[in-house]
Design the sequence.
């Protein structure tokens, strides 16, 4: 925290606005954007000391930049982490962590409910380098336990899951990992630290796609790994210096500003999503709504212990006689919207509407989709910050005109 000493720890909303590197000599109130690839040293001896890591100082923006450092400090503070390393995307964050903590022959246990690219990264790309991954149930801790091997190094969870909002028990998985000499990684994109702090529940690492709620306005791609300062310095920094999955200072600055409103946005998203979930649950065309904030959610109690609110993302299944009718009905509801954005992205002020079985989960075979519970009548909504009455009218236009 710049220039101040505080006896009591600062709250999340204060940290989100204030935590950053100290101001420069110009006294700027809004954090500066340092668009520079390299940094100048006062003399050769200082350059040598900085290159050797014997003296602090910025050298080259592939691995350190003041704007990126402010982004890292702010996000670390929000997650209650000792350290953070920024990356160019959320996927780069997962790859950086994997490169820094795994080697050929190691084993990973991963939820089968994680982001599709994460499944491909572990199941396909890292498999080519001799890292073996077992995919297990999102909700059944016994399956995670049964998958452990002597060479298991990481357990990888994402909670709530997309699109069915199934919850992983973070504390239980952390105990399991530590008992097996492994570490727990949690992808915290959906909740953000405003709603869920996995490190406080025992996780060792937190992954972020800054692209989602940290920016919150759908502008840039960004990522980060949060964890212990020593592990970040000793394991991640040397890899990042070499491989350069770096975050651009411009994108860091955009997300740094986005984080300032994280608390109020997540609170507003959550209020709207809960109201929308309750409204959809009452609609005669809707078979079922999936939202952790609803009492009808099978893991509502766990979700409310682990998260502050249900978050912004929900999905709902339309009533239909068969898969063919279900898809036609889902397409009708989506196509009747005029306010919602038809896109697979989320984490935006703009409400997004998605048909998972033909987009985000389109590459799965039908039986895999059935096993995952992602039917043709399922629609995902990432509720934005528009007027809720407008959003309900937007959905009712299609829901009220199904044949
Ligand atoms: C989007 C997303 C990612 C990947 O982040 P990018 O910034 O798009 O690389 C990872 N995990 C989850 C849960 C996501 O939603």
Sequence:
């Amino acid at each position: 925290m710049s220039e101040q000493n505080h006896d009591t720890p600062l709250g999340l909303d204060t940290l989100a606005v204030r935590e950053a590197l100290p101001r420069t000599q110009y006294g700027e109130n809004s954090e500066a954007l340092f668009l520079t690839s390299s940094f100048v040293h006062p003399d050769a001896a200082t350059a040598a000391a900085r290159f050797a890591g014997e003296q602090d100082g910025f050298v080259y923006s592939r691995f350190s930049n003041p704007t990126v450092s402010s982004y890292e400090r702010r996000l670390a503070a929000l997650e209650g982490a000792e350290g953070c390393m920024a990356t160019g995307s959320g996927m780069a964050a997962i790859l950086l962590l994997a490169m820094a903590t795994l080697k050929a022959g190691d084993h990973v246990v991963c939820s089968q409910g994680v982001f599709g690219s994460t499944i491909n990264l572990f199941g396909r790309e890292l498999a080519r380098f001799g890292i073996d991954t077992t995919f297990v149930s999102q909700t059944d801790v016994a399956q995670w336990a049964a998958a452990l091997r002597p060479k298991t190094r990481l357990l990888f969870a994402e909670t709530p899951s997309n699109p069915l909002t199934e919850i992983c028990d973070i504390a239980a998985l952390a105990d399991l990992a530590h008992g097996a000499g492994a570490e727990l990684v949690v992808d915290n994109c959906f909740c953000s630290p405003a709603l869920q702090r996995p490190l406080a529940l025992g996780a060792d690492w937190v992954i972020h796609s800054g692209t989602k709620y940290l920016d919150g306005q759908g502008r840039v791609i960004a990522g980060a790994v949060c964890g212990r300062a020593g592990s970040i310095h000793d394991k991640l920094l040397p890899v990042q210096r070499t491989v350069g999955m770096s975050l651009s200072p411009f994108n860091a600055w955009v997300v740094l500003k986005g984080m300032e409103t994280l608390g109020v946005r997540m609170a507003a998203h959550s209020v709207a999503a809960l109201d929308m979930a309750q409204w959809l649950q009452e609609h005669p065309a809707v078979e079922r709504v999936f939202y952790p904030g609803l009492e009808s959610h099978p893991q509502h109690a766990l979700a409310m212990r682990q998260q502050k609110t249900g978050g912004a993302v929900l999905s709902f299944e339309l009533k239909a006689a068969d898969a063919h009718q279900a898809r036609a009905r889902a397409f009708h509801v989506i196509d009747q919207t005029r306010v919602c954005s038809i896109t697979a992205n989320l984490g935006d002020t703009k409400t997004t509407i998605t048909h998972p079985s033909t987009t985000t989960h389109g590459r799965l075979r039908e039986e895999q989709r059935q096993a995952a519970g992602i039917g043709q009548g399922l629609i995902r909504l990432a509720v934005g910050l528009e007027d809720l009455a407008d959003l309900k009218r937007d959905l009712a236009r299609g829901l009220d005109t199904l044949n």
Notes: The chain has a mean pLDDT of 96. The chain has two domains: 3-261, 262-399.
